[in-house]
Amino acid sequence: MATFIPEWKTASAREIQIKRVLDALGDDYVVRRPVRAGCPAALFVQHKTLGWMAIAVSTATFEEVDGGQLFVSEQREGFENLVATLQPDMPSLIVMWSCSTEAARALNRQFVGCCGARIVSRDQFTSIGPKLIAGMLAPVTAAVEHALLGTYFPEIEIPLACTTRGVLRRDNSAGLPRFFLDPDQ
After folding, report:
1. DSSP 31
2. SS3 category, 96
């Protein structure tokens, strides 16, 4: 079972369904929910060797975000903003909670050219979510991982004054690397 950081206290039926899918992941997975406001992703999935991915959940309906509409609605602008602000350095999954599978596929075709995100319906996520997540994870560089951890999870960063030593690296530069809490800590 995946490690959840922070520990989930499920409050809604949607969160219970999402947690049920994420519980099916193995022990090597860490599911992080950003504490800091302003993050476009609802949560991040991390694996020790496979990498990272972002998951966003949208409650917009197909009619609200479909590109074939004559006028652009507030919901469409909000959805386009969500798609544009997801992490460009890692794969992203957008779960359309109020759309059918066919509608989610249509939205995926509309937005596949402008973003690296994959759009799925709630039914697809609940049925093949663990396989989908495992297949979408991608390694990120140490710089991207440190920027991600420092931006959305600042509570796990260890101040440099509190560190005693780091991983042995032969580097003559005069700076200290950033240190973060381990998922087990």
Report:
1. E
2. strand
Residues 6+ apart with CB under 8 A from 131: none
**Which tokens hold the place of 74?**
């507030």
CB atoms within 10 A of CB 45: 25
- At 36-74, the pLDDT tens digits run 888 899 999 999 999 999 999 999 999 888 877 666 778
- In 10 A of CB 185, how many CB atoms? 8
Residues 158, 179: contact at Cβ < 8 Å? yes
The pair of three-digit structure tokens given for residue 138, joined into one six-digit string: 């991608």
**pTM, two decimal places:** 0.84
What distance in Å separates the CA atoms of residue 152 and residue 149, rounded to the nearest whole number? 6
